[in-house]
Amino acid sequence: MAALHHRDGWKAWLVCFSAVVSNILIFGSASTFGVIYPVLLDDFKEGKATTAWVGSLAGFLTFCLSPISAKLIYRFGPRLVAIFGAIICAIGLFVTSFSKTIAFMYFSYGVVFGIGSSMTYNSNFDIVQKYFKRKTSLALGIMTAGAGASFCMGFIFEILITHVGWRNMYKCTSAMALAVCVSSLSYSPQVEKDYEPKLPRETRIAQNGVKHTSLFKNYPYIICCILSFFYVLGVNIPLVHLGRYALDSGLTLSQVGHLYITYGVSTVIGRIVSGKLCDLKCINLIYLNSFVIVTVATAIMFIQYAKDPVGLNMYCCVHGTFDGMQVTATSVMITRYTNVLNRTRGYGWFNQIISWGFLLAPPLGGFIADQTGSYIPAFYVAGSIAFIGGAMEMTLKCFNTVDIGTVPPMEVLLETIDDTNHETVVQKITVL
């Protein structure tokens, strides 16, 4: 039997780096849809809301299928699921290059690419949190920074669109997706594990006399999922429509590509800094997350005053930095509101809930812009929706729970029913 890799060791950082590469190459096509969006508008001559469904479907399925992806990961392991997910992404992107209608792109890009993206993204999260123990928050921050860095791919896509056209651009991104198959080979299942008991027919965990039988009875977890839905619904309106808004304001396609670079660099910095902050015992995650959400919402509502390259780059810098901090902080909160017995499933359900924000945001912004003839009302609505998430964040302080900024490992009693001897077995385990 192969030796187990140590958690937090050099192998763990290699896995984290591979996850970053995967997120950049796969999410590069999804997160920079705002660059290709105005090109599709001009090519297919469809409405803003109709065209926006292409990107929203891909984002929706990436997160909505997380519970299914989690089951596949549990059955086949993150390495195999990540490789097959990358192959599916490559097929979807390649077929998209031959699209003749927006409806066909709904299937080739929205559905096929979305399915593959879900498999790779959830595999990345699963393997990184397994390889780290003491520096989990920092590792998650770096891993999610890969998704943020994928916005920098907008500059590359702009160059490809200008020189070879958007159809050949998708063929190039298809080849990039296949490279993820190589990076995913490092996802070895041979890693040290916490104690994970095999659970027979009936299982319950008791702490201080309280039974925790379901994620849906974990009210702080539920609130965190709902507020994240409102946040995602709000912030994704300007992210997708920023390119069209910038072109309408007089910027060139090349300058639009630079906006996404600014956003990408800023969100990478925000995610890594937030990952480090979340490891500090003096930082209260509830206050931190509420502050960054309100800051992003305010920036969205003031975007109307940014109509030149300098102003829009400043907006992207603020939005990117604090959005990156929010992504990492929320990931850490979900990790700490769950335990080793239900963490993967909890993150899967979290992704499924926020996926509806990814689905509805771009068409909602496009619909408002089509009806009013301007993106300004759409940005006001987006900022207001994000504010709701920030307000809901503070309700978490109403629960008499341990401050999630300083959650220690829990010693709990695990009671299982032995079907063979019909006896109750009680074990004390540490749940991180």
From TrEMBL:
Domain Major facilitator superfamily (MFS) profile per the UniProt entry, residue ranges: 15-401
Gene3D superfamilies for this protein: MFS general substrate transporter like domains (1.20.1250.20)
Keyword Disulfide bond among UniProt keywords: no
Molecular-function annotations in GO: transmembrane transporter activity
Compartments (UniProt record): Membrane
Family annotation (Pfam families): MFS_1 (PF07690)
GO cellular component assignments: membrane
Keyword terms of this UniProt record: Membrane, Transmembrane, Transmembrane helix
Transmembrane segments: 12-40, 52-73, 80-98, 104-125, 137-162, 219-240, 252-273, 285-306, 347-369, 375-392
PROSITE patterns per UniProt: MFS
Signal peptide: none
Membrane topology per record: Multi-pass membrane protein
Protein name: Monocarboxylate transporter 13-like isoform X1
Lineage, top ranks: Eukaryota, Metazoa, Cnidaria, Anthozoa, Hexacorallia
Gene: LOC116302610
